[in-house]
Amino acid sequence: MKTILITGASTGIGRATALLFQQAGWNVAATMRDPSRASELAALPNVLVQALDVTDKASIDAAVEATVARFGALDVLLNNAGYGLFGPLEAVTPQQLERQYRTNVFGPVQTMQAALPHLRATRGLIINVSSIGGRVCFPFNSLYHGTKFALEGVSESLAIELAPQGVRVKIVEPGGVKTDFAGRSLDVMSLPGVDLYDASLKSIMAVFADPARRVDYSEPENIARVILEAATDGSARLRYLAGKDAIAMAAHRAGISDEEHQAQSVVRFGLQG
Ligand SMILES: NC(=O)c1ccc[n+]([C@@H]2O[C@H](COP(=O)([O-])OP(=O)(O)OC[C@H]3O[C@@H](n4cnc5c(N)ncnc54)[C@H](OP(=O)(O)O)[C@@H]3O)[C@@H](O)[C@H]2O)c1
Prior knowledge:
single chain; alpha/beta; Rossmann fold; seven-stranded parallel sheet; two-stranded parallel sheet; 10 helices; binds NADP nicotinamide-adenine-dinucleotide phosphate
């Protein structure tokens, strides 16, 4: 029986993935900041609910060790925990900047460090949840994109570095997903007293809130299925786009230049000078 450790398993993609892998006969270490939120998961056989805050190295190390102590080995690490930071870059506070990169970049790196000795023993696999935002950029998401581009670069390099050891690294890139991501998980930056960005922000928020845009959003269960495929297809494939919208956006972006993308984004999001 194989074992997966998942970060951010309290809600959304992480929770759906924990449930799917459990149903598929895996041992699941479902980790989260507040394990009291996981009574449903904790009641399932072969599920270990464990505290893990990706910004706290001691909790990462303890959760990895507890997983191996309980299930005997670790086959897959899923770095899923993360959140978005939206607004003008100019508005970010040092605390917001630090929390975004500590959570979305440093956290996955430290979790990979803790898991690697065990993954080497099983010739296992790391799956990092990036985003379509790890390859296509929207305005007013600069710092979030920065984290996902960073995670993609780390993953791509590490995949080559670890190949001789038989440990694979994969990247899953969801498009829009119906989770808490755009709600409680979104940190919004604002610049009090400066109205320079107001019209553009209003316009981009209207685009993101448009129900027509959400038609192609995925359910978290769809993304979980892509993660299960990545974990079990036995391939050395690096990237898995997840969701109809992600596939369409990536294809469109690949066919245009940087300058065309910039010009099209200004029009599409109704940005004003
Ligand atoms: N939803 C989308 O449209 C979308 C699109 C592309 C990529 N993604 C990526 O998918 C991943 C999961 O997001 P989601 O859509 O499932 O949103 P979600 O439902 O808001 O889940 C985010 C998870 O991350 C956890 N988390 C945040 N900070 C953490 C920390 N310091 N330590 C441990 N866990 C932490 C949250 O835990 P708490 O419950 O404790 O807050 C929650 O479990 C993220 O990496 C996100 O960037 C999402």
